[in-house]
Amino acid sequence: MSQFNQPVSFLARRTGRRSLLRGLGVGAAGLTGAILIGCGDDEETMDDSMADATATMDAMATATTAAMADDSMAEAMDAALGDAKHYELVSGWYRDEPVVYYDFGMQSPLMNAAGVGVAPIWALITGMDADGNPQFVPHQHNIIDVVPGHAGYSDLWQVNLVTVPEDYVADSITSKMELDGMAYPTIQPGLFVNCPVVPAGSTLENGEELTQGWHNGERVYYPDFGPNPAAGIPIWAFITGMDTDGNPQFVEGQHNVIDAIPSDPGYSAFWIVNLVVVDSAYEANTIKSATDVAASGFEVLTPGLMVNCPVVDMM
User: Fold this and answer.
1) Helix (H) or strand (E) holding 91
2) Based on the number of CB atoms within 10 Å of its own CB, is 163 exposed (0-12), middle (13-18) or buried (19 or more)?
3) pLDDT higher than threshold 60 for residue 64
4) Which candidate, 269, 311, 306, places its Cα nearest to that of 108?
5) Tens digit of each residue's pLDDT (9 = 90 or more) over 262-312
6) How far is C-alpha 60 from the geometric centre of its chain's CA atoms?
7) pTM given for the model
8) What is the Cα–Cα distance from 46 to 12, expressed in whole angstroms?
9) Share above pLDDT 90 across residues of the chain, in percent, rounded to a whole number
10) Please, are residues 142 and 213 in contact by the beta-carbon 8 Å criterion?
């Protein structure tokens, strides 16, 4: 079967190495830093300006992963999204240095040349504090309207903040239809987050926890990799050519190459696939950087595919 018909695995050359999760950063304090939702920070790189944002994010993570508010909510079912999966880390190269990342496959549409199609997520708040930080409803889980396999789904979510009354009961709204019926005021702060929905019970090699959300009254789960622009960047995979059915023949043992990590300006976890066609003399992992790719003179094919592969650590 074509590796292109197996989107989670076609870039997923596995590594047995475990590594510590490093936070992907949130940008700044206030609304931009505070908004989303269970993403951790690397204390070694976080400066004082992010302290308030970190506190708000920790509070949000606690709220969204807490037990549901009452017994009636406990009767809700998990969305039927298939069997639980274990997501292992994948080895890659970044400017001659090894990196590891997850591969969540091709679930997000590539728009135009490099744009990422987005789907909405709704977070409920009671308003803003004096510093402009959203006051999230404790114990309320976020709401989405599409899941993997449905038209319009994307791992990249556009944040919508819904202002509910002070007496709102957490998790009394669990679907977009119910939200629409209430006509609460909603704002879009212009933020996007990488939160791929995975089957209930799934695990990640680094131990990242899943956040619960709602979809049509059923529980859904996702790891939260934090803010991400709605734009893709390149990844280079290496092939010797195509078989008679048009399937790429990947170079055995060669790790894929990227040119940005979370600490770099312009980083995105959504990667546009480039296929580097090497010759028969090429030895795996001779090329370990985008600069080397450009200098090699090898033909590069662009099949119009995009994968969600958040980098979590340098090896």
Assistant:
1) strand 90-94
2) middle
3) no
4) 306
5) 999 999 999 999 999 999 999 999 999 999 999 999 999 999 999 999 999
6) 18
7) 0.78
8) 30
9) 74
10) yes
Residue carrying structure tokens 């390149």: 234
How would you class 89 by CB atoms within 10 Å of its CB: exposed for 0-12, middle for 13-18, buried for 19 or more? buried
Residue in the structure block whose two tokens are 């099949």: 303
Alpha carbon 290 to its chain's center: 23
In angstroms, the CA 208 to CA 206 distance is 6
Stretch 178-197: mean pLDDT, rounded? Answer: 97
Cα distances from 16 to residues 102, 203, 258, 295, in angstroms, run 13, 15, 20, 31
Classify residue 77 as exposed, middle or buried by CB count within 10 Å of its CB (0-12, 13-18, 19+).
exposed
User: What pairing do the DSSP bridges indicate for beta strands 233-242 and 270-277?
Assistant: parallel
Residues whose CB is less than 8 angstroms from the CB of residue 288 and which lie 6 or more positions away in sequence, other chains included: 93, 95, 96, 97, 255, 257
Tally of CB atoms within 10 A around 6: 12
Classify strands 211-215 and 218-222 as parallel, antiparallel or unpaired: antiparallel
Cα pseudo-dihedral 92, 86, 191, 182, rounded to 10: 170
Q: Tell how strand 270-277 and strand 110-111 pair up.
A: unpaired
Q: Which helix (H) or strand (E) holds 178?
A: helix 176-182
Give CA–CA dist 267/288, Å, rounded.
Answer: 18
In angstroms, rounded to a whole number, what is the distance separating the alpha carbons of residues 233 and 243?
A: 27
* pLDDT on residue 74: 58
With beta carbons less than 8 A apart as the criterion, state whether 162 and 123 touch: yes
Q: What is the pLDDT of residue 314?
A: 65
Q: Provide the token pair at 161.
A: 């903040």
User: Which residues in 250-285 are b (16+ Cβ under 10 Å) and which e?
Assistant: bbeebbbbbbbbbeeeebbbbbbbbbbbbeeebeee
- Residues 128-140, mean pLDDT to the nearest whole number: 96
The sign one gets for the Cα dihedral 259, 265, 270, 272 is negative
Nearest residue to 248 (alpha-carbon basis) of 199, 193, 295, 305: 305
**E strand or H helix at 62, and its extent?**
helix 51-65
